[in-house]
Amino acid sequence: MADGLVVGLAVALLVVLIGLRTPIFVALGLSGVLGLLVLDGWRGVELLPLALNAQLQEYALVAAPLYILLGEALAVSGLGRDLFAAAHRWFTRVPGGLGASAVASSTVFGAMSGVSISSVAVIGRMAVPEMLSRGYRPAFASGSVAASGALAMLIPPSLMFILYSSITGESTAALFAGGIVPGLLLSAMMIAYVVGRASLRPAEAPRDTETFSWGQRLRALGSVAPALGLVVLVLGSIYTGFATPTEAAAVGALAALVMTAVLYRALGWTELRAVLASTAAVGASILAIVAAAYVFTQMLVVARIPDTVSDFVVGLDVPPWVVMVAIMLVLLVLGCLVDAASLLLVVTPILEPAVSDLGYDPLWFGVLLVVNLEMAVITPPVGLNLYTMKSVVPELDMAEIFRGVAPYLLIEAALLGLLIAVPELATFLPGLLI
């Protein structure tokens, strides 16, 4: 049987299994193993345990559960409430102030957790009920939180960049630096949209009548100073060369536990058990997906799919930017069907060699890929942020949530266009810091 036909059947099986709601790691692993059996017989499968062991011992992956632990510890601390309250005091005078506050607090929380659903859960639990109680339309309120929660994927420390680094060998620190400017720019674009829409349609976001003195604003900043200090500790230790990203994750996780226990007094034995259990569950699920995706990509490598794709892309008689736009469109469609982590793990080994052969920087492509994955987590029917939003505010209608995030897809697309037109947005800071 031709290799291409085998891969096509394996992909078809993967799609069917996903459609049947089979766990993604089972779908990827089963499709990959069966494909390897047909392509290379038992020899290909027999080598998998050693290859998987080597893959899962990748040093960069150690950072993943540590950053998850950091985020889980902060989730029980009450920090989300303080972040939202502080942002509200600074944005109260602008139209859609509560929506802008939600985006700003999600940005800061994302800079500590690196996991988008944690950001949506923590900020959404406070921000959305507050907005609804003040007359905000459900779509406006939920959309601002579900979309801005995805910023955690782009602003370091980002779990997606850790996974991309483990596959490509790109420096995690450089990827983190590459996400800073696009992440802050995207946050500013979201805030501008919230303010602009509230100005044009005040019925969707009634103007806040509360006023705060400068003293109240400064005291609010003081209440979140430990959180800001944690961001400086983690990123500062990386870019001063004091610690690797993995070591910084360990320091940050320990600091988050101490801060939650001592400063916020919110980490008793019950909370600690919950934090550790949640960290273990999320970390194990991610590593299971990493392992299964590696099996599937091994099948693609045996069939020489990355080489074939690279040769095809390079041989196209079109400008390279056209190829990049086409890749982004394909990823957008795939993101509607597969969760972000699985999509990254499967497509990176295929697309990264082709993009490099076109002369593009793999670091820049990594940032582009993560922005595209941000769109995936807010795109139905698989978008995890949408269902997280529903779970923390059950009275919301899913149709309202879908309607609320739709404009943010256009904002994300605009950022993609900017990154393709001006690659320096992603590459300037890594060149300066690394």
Return the average pLDDT rounded to an integer: 85
Ends distance: 48 Å
Number of helical stretches of at least 4 residues = 21
- Measured as a percent range, the helix fraction is over 70%
- Which class of secondary structure composition applies to the elements? mainly alpha
Strand elements, count = 0
SSE order: HHHHHHHHHHHHHHHHHHHHH
Note the beta-strand portion. under 5%
Please describe the biggest sheet, giving its number of strands, its sense, and whether it closes into a barrel: none
Number of separate structural domains = 2
Cα shape: globular
Low-confidence stretches: none
Radius of gyration: 22 Å
Overview of this structure, please?
The protein has 21 helices and no strands. 79% of the residues lie in helices and 0% in strands. The mean pLDDT is 85. Helix 6 (97-113) packs antiparallel against helix 7 (116-133). The chain has 434 residues and is mainly alpha-helical. The termini are far apart. The longest helix is centred in the middle third of the chain and has 34 residues, at 269-302. The protein has two domains: 1-46, no CATH class; 60-433, no CATH class.
